[in-house]
Design goal:
Elements (H helix, E strand, L loop, with lengths): L2 H13 L4 H5 L5 E2 H8 L3 H13 L3 E4 L5 E4 H8 L9 E2 L2 H7 L29 H12 L7 E4 L6 H14 L9 E5 L7 H9 E2 L11 E2 L1 H4 L4 E5 L6 H13 L1 E2 L9 E2 L3 E6 L3 H4 L2 H4 L4 E4 L8 H19 L3 E4 H9 L5 H22 L5 E3 L6 H4 L9 H5 L9 E4 L14 H19 L4 H22 L9 H7 L4 H13 L7 H20 L12 H7 L1 H18 L5 H14 L9 E7 L3 H13 L4 E6 L5 H15 L5 E5 L7 H9 L3 E4 L4 H11 L6 H7 L3 H10 L13 E7 L5 H12 L1 H5 L3 E6 H4 L4 H4 L1 E7 L10 E3 H6 L2 H11 L14 H7 L6 H19 L5 H19 L9 H7 L1 H10 L1 H7 L5 H12 L2
Parallel strand pairs: 2-4, 5-12, 5-13, 6-9, 9-12, 14-15, 17-18, 17-19, 19-20, 21-22, 21-23, 23-24
Antiparallel strand pairs: 1-3, 2-3, 7-8, 10-11, 14-16
Helix pairs in contact: 1-3, 1-4, 3-4, 14-16, 16-19, 16-20, 19-20, 22-23, 22-25, 23-26, 24-25, 25-26, 27-30, 28-29, 40-41, 40-43, 41-45, 42-45, 43-45
């Protein structure tokens, strides 16, 4: 930055706080001595640069001893007038005020008599007062107004402001009624100067390749009106210079013309987000005497932001033609969140929130749109985390005791300029409605439709954030680690509930500790909502009697989570939350499971333990770092000593990373006699989860193992702890066989789902074997031991071996049947274990690289076409088998790995009618994916339909 610019910026900063009252009382400006002291430049150089700035029309010089200086633009703002820039050397600033009406400055049109569209802008009497005064002065300046430059951050309303200036000019007869408002975004053609000049000025036929006829430019269209140059900083220097002739003499030439001067009277309004002194030519800037600064949303008053929020919701209500009810928490979040994209982003975010609420409105047939905290994007929800620091300001806008909702009626006639049009919102809601109707006709459930539409809306949100370059939102350092694991919405809801009971939990440290612990647990409940671990040593009734205060708080948390986030928490989990509150607040002391991390490296284990202890606000988690030169025996000895020190009589939970450390639990137990439980592949989230459970009162090692949701880890735990859990020894080898037509894909996925959802399989070391249909036909009990069940798509009716169909597993009670079979054989199984419906889960996880939504949509249509032609009814089992097999088939064909089919030609000949129907129905699929499905793959589809 040049010396002159540094001095000028310093003077601007000094003048910013000056008021008109101070000048009227005799304030003269700022001496070179003050500026010299602040900038570090000697006074002679400061004086030299200030005199140059005066000659350039940027600074007013107050002549005398000493000499004072004041910024010309700031004086214009204070007076609301454009001062004559010809002579900026005056005797005093006060003399400018006294003689201003006699000079070339011009007053505004009388506020009482003019038609003032500026009054439709929120903030016209406060944060936008000065910009409005400047705009009125510039547009009214004789004879044809002054060119204006609007500066301000993205989303601050520059484009809107320019359009209002145009409407103001029309309303007050400052331009002809037929005058146009022409908009040009300089960024669109920044990389093609020739095309840019053609757009601006037009071109002559043959001016460049492709110019087949004469063409009018935007300048010609704007003749007599206003030409708005958005993102003017993207205008190349050559184009800036080309505008000089137009600005200075109202003359221009079309591209390719050399002998014709065309005339146009155009008022220019330019806008930029950049530093004008670094991106625009000085000679270009001189031709824009009125520079207007648009404030960011953060710089505007809170009541203005409140009005903006109100207006945007009102507008959405009118567009949707439905009433909107907004929870108070939503209004608070919108007032407080870090809205880096300013008014533009605020409007977009409210649109997204309303679109999310619109989904429930459509799918649940509600009579109004209801918006609560669950509809907020995370970056907006983070605003609620600022409630404590902004509490006093927020109280001015909310009646805390009486008003929980704000209603916006579609019949409200009030209208602001901000909301006079919103074509994109209308298109978004129309699209949601159309897609909803399409999915409804296809028979999709409302929950499935909502999920699909939610994905689309969230993608749109990310596009908006990306366009505005505001993807990275700052989170306070102390919360950054936590929010990588826990949804901030959960943390805030839990925290608010806990604060309600501050008198019950007097220690501030305990309040924070409890909030973190409960947030981690509830986050886990939501992430593992399909897991039903109904195994806990104390019954709910006993818990409610033993811990009445904690139970009351737990129920309140449950209610708030349900109301604010629309997340259901079971009564069983209320019991767990009660015990967590009891544990963290030390209302009742109890012995706990010791926790020890051992990891390879100098800081691996201690780093994880430190993070865990910091986040859970405890010292319970201990660590041993096993450096690469440390002997195994020495590490084992150290672990044994630590185990004795931290054991409270309930055993030790040993968390290790890999290798030889996996066997340490058994070795420590033999060496010390202390019961241990080992979990490997340790990570920070796993440590947090394990320590949270270990701290629960009443928790045992056995219980912790059964509560664990990681099936791979659980399998190892159960396998290693058979003796400790008194597992029965069953003679012989037991297995479950899953099969499909090919052995690839469906059968393997079924095996994975069984392992993940039936703990007794891993617990009792039952093997799961995958096979093809042909191989299953030849199986024997002698070869595979005791076969508990066959699970697949075809009942082969093999004697003495129970059969369970794929669709029973996915949409009926197949998992319960298998669990009961295992129990009847004498194996131990968890009590009261319940299983979730897995059909949609399997479908959504079945593809590795194809788009699931697109794939299943076309396969669904194809299946229906086949069944219609064959006059066959659809079933859950066929639907799932067809989609799974079809999706795997498409991936195989795309990868050029189709399955073989023995003697396919003969098989097709035997089933020619069915083959022709399926082949014809798959033509559309082949077109969409640009593939040719071989007959061998079609053969398996024929076989699937033929078995119905």
């Amino acid at each position: 930055m040049s010396r002159k610019q540094i001095i000028y910026d310093c003077l601007i900063n000094l003048c910013n706080s000056t008021t008109l009252e101070e000048i009227e009382e005799g304030f003269l400006g700022f001496e070179t001595r003050i500026i010299s002291k602040k900038t570090g430049f000697i006074r002679n150089n400061v004086s030299k640069e200030l005199n140059q700035l005066t000659r350039e029309g940027k600074v007013i010089k107050v002549v005398g001893r000493p000499t004072y200086y004041f910024v010309y633009q700031k004086m214009n703002e204070l007076l609301g007038k454009i001062l004559d820039a010809e002579n900026l050397e005056v005797e005093s600033l006060r003399s400018i005020i006294a003689t201003t009406n006699e000079e070339k400055g011009i007053d505004f049109i009388n506020e009482d008599t003019d038609t003032d569209i500026f009054h439709s802008i929120i903030g016209f009497e406060s944060s936008l007062k000065v910009p409005i005064l400047q705009a009125k002065a510039a547009i009214s300046y004789p004879p044809n107004g002054l060119n204006m430059l609007l500066i301000g951050p993205t989303g601050s309303g520059k484009s809107m402001f320019a359009e209002i200036i145009y409407k103001y000019a029309l309303d007050n007869n400052l331009v002809e009624p037929e005058a146009n408002f022409v908009i040009f975004n300089c960024a669109e053609y920044a990389n093609n100067p020739q095309l840019l000049l053609s757009q601006l000025f037009g071109h002559k036929k043959g001016a460049y390749t492709g110019a087949t006829s004469d063409s009018m430019g935007l300048v010609e269209k704007a003749n007599g009106g206003i030409f708005f140059l958005d993102e003017v900083h993207r205008l190349p220097p050559q184009a800036q210079e080309m505008l000089f002739l137009l600005i200075d003499k109202n003359i221009y030439r079309r591209l390719g013309e050399t002998d014709i001067d065309r005339t146009a009277k155009v008022l220019l309004i330019a806008a930029t987000t950049e530093d004008i002194n670094s991106v625009l030519l000085t000679t270009f800037l001189r031709r824009f005497p009125m520079v207007i600064t648009m404030p960011s949303l953060e710089e505007r008053l809170l009541n203005e932001r409140y009005e903006l929020i109100y207006e945007f919701f009102l507008n959405q209500s009118k567009i949707i033609n439905a009433n909107i009810r907004v929870n108070k928490s939503v209004m608070k979040a919108l007032l407080l969140y870090d809205c880096k994209g300013n008014v533009g982003q605020l409007k977009n975010d409210i649109q997204i929130i309303c679109a999310r609420g619109f989904l429930d409105y459509k799918t649940k047939s509600k009579n109004q749109i209801e918006l609560d905290a669950s509809t907020l994007p995370n970056h907006v929800y983070n605003g609620l985390l600022k409630m404590q620091e902004k509490r006093k300001e927020i109280l001015n806008f909310f009646n805390i005791n009486n008003r929980d909702y704000y209603d916006f009626s579609s019949e409200n006639k009030k209208q602001r300029f901000y909301n006079d049009k919103d074509d994109f919102s209308e298109e978004l809601y129309k699209k949601i409605g159309e897609v909803f109707e399409i999915y409804t006709k296809r028979g999709y459930s409302n929950n499935k439709i909502k999920k699909l539409l939610q994905i689309s809306i969230d993608k749109y949100l990310q596009q908006l954030l990306s366009k505005m370059d505001i993807n990275n939102y700052e989170i306070s350092p102390e919360k950054e680690k936590l929010f990588k694991i826990v949804d901030p919405k959960i943390y805030n809801t839990v925290g608010k509930t806990i604060l309600e009971f501050g008198s019950e939990i007097s220690n501030k440290n305990e309040i924070e500790k409890l909030t973190i612990a409960l947030s981690l647990h509830i986050n886990e409940i939501i992430e593992n909502k399909d897991e039903k671990n109904h195994i806990f040593p104390m019954r709910l009734q006993e818990i409610s009697v033993s811990y009445p205060k904690e139970y009351f708080i737990a129920r309140k948390i449950r209610m708030n989570i349900d109301q604010e986030l629309n997340i259901y928490i079971s009564e069983y989990e209320v019991g767990i939350i009660t015990m967590l509150i009891s544990s963290v607040t030390s209302i009742q002391k109890s012995k706990k499971i010791g926790v020890m991390i051992i990891g390879h490296g100098s800081k691996t284990a201690s780093s994880m333990a430190s993070v865990c202890n910091e986040m859970l606000m405890t010292t319970h988690c201990k660590a041993i770092d096993m450096s690469l030169d440390m002997k195994i025996d020495d590490t084992l000895e150290k672990a044994s000593i630590l185990a004795k020190n931290i054991n409270e009589g309930k055993g030790i939970l040993l968390l290790v990373d890999m290798g030889s450390l996996v066997s340490f639990g058994e070795l420590v137990e033999k060496k010390t006699g202390i019961k241990t439980l080992t979990i490997d592949k340790v990570s920070t989230p796993l440590v947090l989860k394990a320590v949270s459970k270990a701290l629960l009162p009443g928790m045992t090692l056995e219980q912790l193992a059964l509560e664990w949701n990681d099936e791979e880890t659980k399998s190892k735990i159960m396998d290693n702890k058979k003796d400790n859990f008194n597992q029965k020894t069953i003679e012989g080898k037991y297995c479950i066989i899953t099969f499909c037509l090919t052995q690839d894909g469906t059968s393997q996925k079924l095996a994975q789902l069984l392992r993940e959802n039936i703990p007794s399989i891993a617990y009792n070391n039952i093997e799961i074997i995958t096979m093809s249909l042909e191989k299953v036909k030849k199986i024997s009990q002698e070869e595979y031991g005791n076969i508990i069940a066959l699970i697949g798509s075809v009942n082969l009716k093999i004697e003495s071996i129970p059969y369970i169909s794929t669709d029973e597993i996915l949409v009926k009670d197949g998992l319960d049947k298998i669990n009961n079979m295992i129990a009847e054989l004498g194996f131990d199984v968890p009590n009261n274990y319940h299983f979730a419906n897995l059909s949609m889960r399997l479908i959504e996880e079945s593809l590795s690289f194809l788009n699931p939504e697109k794939t299943y949509e076309i396969l669904e249509i194809t299946l229906q076409e086949i069944l219609n032609k064959l006059k066959i009814d659809n079933t859950d089992g066929l639907y799932i088998r067809f989609l799974l097999h079809g999706s795997y088939m498409l991936e195989r064909v795309i990868k050029k790995e189709p399955l073989p089919y023995k003697d396919i030609a003969t098989y097709i000949q035997q089933h020619s009618d069915l083959y022709n129907v399926i082949r014809q129905s798959f033509k559309k699929v082949e077109e969409i994916f640009s593939i040719k499905i071989p007959n061998t793959e079609i053969g398996y589809l024929v076989e699937m339909i033929d078995t119905l």
